[in-house]
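A reminder from the course coordinator: this example appears on the midterm review sheet, so study it carefully.

Given structure:
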Protein backbone atom coordinates (compact mmCIF):
# COMPACT_ATOMS: atom_id res chain seq x y z
CA UNK A 1 0.00 0.00 0.00
CA UNK A 2 1.18 3.54 -0.72
CA UNK A 3 1.67 5.92 2.20
CA UNK A 4 3.06 9.31 3.03
CA UNK A 5 4.80 9.96 6.33
CA UNK A 6 4.54 13.56 7.48
CA UNK A 7 7.45 14.30 9.82
CA UNK A 8 7.10 16.94 12.50
CA UNK A 9 9.74 19.58 13.10
CA UNK A 10 12.00 18.81 10.15
CA UNK A 11 14.35 21.57 9.01
CA UNK A 12 13.13 23.99 11.68
CA UNK A 13 14.70 25.09 14.96
CA UNK A 14 18.00 23.28 14.39
CA UNK A 15 16.61 19.88 13.33
CA UNK A 16 18.17 19.85 9.86
CA UNK A 17 18.31 16.84 7.59
CA UNK A 18 18.56 16.16 3.90
CA UNK A 19 15.58 14.36 2.43
CA UNK A 20 17.91 11.96 0.58
CA UNK A 21 19.26 10.86 3.99
CA UNK A 22 15.72 10.49 5.35
CA UNK A 23 14.78 8.35 2.34
CA UNK A 24 17.78 6.08 3.00
CA UNK A 25 16.65 5.65 6.63
CA UNK A 26 13.18 4.61 5.39
CA UNK A 27 14.74 2.16 2.93
CA UNK A 28 16.97 0.65 5.64
CA UNK A 29 13.82 0.26 7.78
CA UNK A 30 12.30 -1.90 5.03
CA UNK A 31 10.17 0.59 3.11
CA UNK A 32 9.93 0.36 -0.67
CA UNK A 33 9.50 2.92 -3.48
CA UNK A 34 10.71 5.69 -1.16
CA UNK A 35 10.75 9.31 -2.29
CA UNK A 36 10.38 12.78 -0.82
CA UNK A 37 8.24 15.81 -1.61
CA UNK A 38 9.73 19.19 -0.70
CA UNK A 39 12.22 19.61 2.16
CA UNK A 40 9.62 19.73 4.94
CA UNK A 41 9.55 16.00 5.71
CA UNK A 42 6.98 14.41 3.41
CA UNK A 43 8.15 10.88 2.60
CA UNK A 44 6.22 8.69 0.19
CA UNK A 45 6.73 4.94 0.42
CA UNK A 46 5.11 1.54 0.05
CA UNK A 47 4.70 -1.17 2.68
CA UNK A 48 2.45 -4.10 3.55
CA UNK A 49 2.81 -3.48 7.30
CA UNK A 50 0.08 -1.99 9.53
CA UNK A 51 0.17 1.78 10.06
CA UNK A 52 0.65 1.42 13.84
CA UNK A 53 3.68 -0.80 13.27
CA UNK A 54 5.07 1.53 10.58
CA UNK A 55 4.83 4.52 12.91
CA UNK A 56 6.87 2.75 15.62
CA UNK A 57 9.44 1.36 13.17
CA UNK A 58 9.98 4.67 11.39
CA UNK A 59 10.02 6.90 14.48
CA UNK A 60 12.62 4.62 16.05
CA UNK A 61 14.72 4.50 12.88
CA UNK A 62 14.59 8.30 12.48
CA UNK A 63 15.35 8.94 16.16
CA UNK A 64 18.30 6.56 16.14
CA UNK A 65 19.79 7.83 12.88
CA UNK A 66 19.36 11.58 13.44
CA UNK A 67 19.69 11.62 17.28
CA UNK A 68 16.45 13.47 17.91
CA UNK A 69 12.96 12.58 19.14
CA UNK A 70 11.13 11.87 15.89
CA UNK A 71 7.38 12.22 15.48
CA UNK A 72 5.63 11.31 12.26
CA UNK A 73 2.10 10.71 11.06
CA UNK A 74 1.32 8.23 8.31
CA UNK A 75 -1.56 8.54 5.87
CA UNK A 76 -2.65 6.39 2.94
CA UNK A 77 -3.26 7.66 -0.57
CA UNK A 78 -7.02 7.56 0.09
CA UNK A 79 -6.63 9.62 3.27
CA UNK A 80 -4.49 12.20 1.46
CA UNK A 81 -7.12 12.46 -1.28
CA UNK A 82 -9.59 13.20 1.53
CA UNK A 83 -7.34 16.04 2.79
CA UNK A 84 -7.39 17.56 -0.69
CA UNK A 85 -11.09 17.12 -1.48
CA UNK A 86 -12.35 18.28 1.93
CA UNK A 87 -10.82 21.79 1.93
CA UNK A 88 -13.61 24.02 3.24
CA UNK A 89 -12.16 27.35 2.08
CA UNK A 90 -12.12 28.85 -1.39
CA UNK A 91 -8.76 29.60 -2.94
CA UNK A 92 -7.61 33.13 -2.24
CA UNK A 93 -4.08 34.37 -2.95
CA UNK A 94 -4.17 36.56 0.19
CA UNK A 95 -4.45 33.55 2.55
CA UNK A 96 -2.62 30.40 3.55
CA UNK A 97 -4.70 27.31 4.25
CA UNK A 98 -3.23 24.57 6.40
CA UNK A 99 -4.47 21.06 7.10
CA UNK A 100 -3.43 19.15 10.21
CA UNK A 101 -2.29 15.53 10.34
CA UNK A 102 -2.17 13.94 13.74
CA UNK A 103 -3.39 11.57 16.38
CA UNK A 104 -7.02 10.52 16.70
CA UNK A 105 -9.35 13.34 17.73
CA UNK A 106 -6.64 16.02 17.47
CA UNK A 107 -8.96 18.04 15.25
CA UNK A 108 -11.24 18.70 18.25
CA UNK A 109 -8.31 19.81 20.43
CA UNK A 110 -7.16 22.16 17.66
CA UNK A 111 -10.65 23.60 17.11
CA UNK A 112 -11.00 24.28 20.85
CA UNK A 113 -7.61 26.02 20.90
CA UNK A 114 -8.56 27.99 17.79
CA UNK A 115 -11.91 29.05 19.28
CA UNK A 116 -10.15 30.28 22.44
CA UNK A 117 -7.41 32.18 20.57
CA UNK A 118 -7.68 35.79 19.48
CA UNK A 119 -7.91 35.99 15.71
CA UNK A 120 -6.78 38.26 12.92
CA UNK A 121 -9.32 39.57 10.43
CA UNK A 122 -10.74 36.76 8.30
CA UNK A 123 -8.82 34.01 10.12
CA UNK A 124 -10.93 30.85 10.24
CA UNK A 125 -10.72 27.29 11.54
CA UNK A 126 -13.00 24.43 10.58
CA UNK A 127 -13.26 20.64 10.83
CA UNK A 128 -14.24 18.82 7.64
CA UNK A 129 -14.34 15.02 7.39
CA UNK A 130 -12.26 14.64 10.55
CA UNK A 131 -9.59 17.13 9.46
CA UNK A 132 -8.89 20.53 11.00
CA UNK A 133 -8.23 23.30 8.46
CA UNK A 134 -6.90 26.75 9.28
CA UNK A 135 -7.15 29.78 7.00
CA UNK A 136 -4.91 32.70 7.92
CA UNK A 137 -3.94 35.88 6.07
CA UNK A 138 -0.49 35.62 4.47
CA UNK A 139 2.15 37.14 6.72
CA UNK A 140 0.19 36.37 9.91
CA UNK A 141 0.87 32.64 10.33
CA UNK A 142 3.57 32.97 12.98
CA UNK A 143 2.13 36.11 14.57
CA UNK A 144 -1.38 34.82 15.18
CA UNK A 145 -2.36 33.57 18.64
CA UNK A 146 -3.30 30.20 17.20
CA UNK A 147 0.01 29.98 15.32
CA UNK A 148 1.86 30.38 18.62
CA UNK A 149 -0.22 27.63 20.25
CA UNK A 150 0.91 25.22 17.55
CA UNK A 151 4.48 25.32 18.83
CA UNK A 152 3.62 24.15 22.35
CA UNK A 153 5.86 21.36 23.55
CA UNK A 154 2.84 19.61 25.07
CA UNK A 155 1.41 19.14 21.57
CA UNK A 156 4.60 18.14 19.72
CA UNK A 157 3.73 14.45 19.51
CA UNK A 158 0.09 15.09 18.58
CA UNK A 159 0.14 16.63 15.09
CA UNK A 160 1.92 18.38 12.27
CA UNK A 161 0.56 20.76 9.66
CA UNK A 162 1.07 21.33 5.98
CA UNK A 163 -0.01 24.03 3.58
CA UNK A 164 -2.68 22.66 1.24
CA UNK A 165 -0.29 23.17 -1.69
CA UNK A 166 1.96 20.54 -0.08
CA UNK A 167 -0.93 18.07 -0.06
CA UNK A 168 -1.47 18.77 -3.74
CA UNK A 169 2.19 17.99 -4.50
CA UNK A 170 2.17 14.86 -2.34
CA UNK A 171 -0.98 13.64 -4.04
CA UNK A 172 0.48 14.27 -7.50
CA UNK A 173 3.63 12.31 -6.70
CA UNK A 174 1.70 9.45 -5.11
CA UNK A 175 -0.49 9.16 -8.23
CA UNK A 176 2.42 9.26 -10.69
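Designed residues:
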Amino acid sequence: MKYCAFLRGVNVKGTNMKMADVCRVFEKAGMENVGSVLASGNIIFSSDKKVQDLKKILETAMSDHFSYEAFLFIRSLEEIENFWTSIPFEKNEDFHVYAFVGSDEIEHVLLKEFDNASKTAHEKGKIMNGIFYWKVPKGNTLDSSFGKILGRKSLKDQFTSRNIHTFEKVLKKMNS
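Residues 4 and 75 are 5 Å apart (CA to CA). Helices lie at 19-28, 51-66, 77-85, 106-116, 145-149, 164-174.
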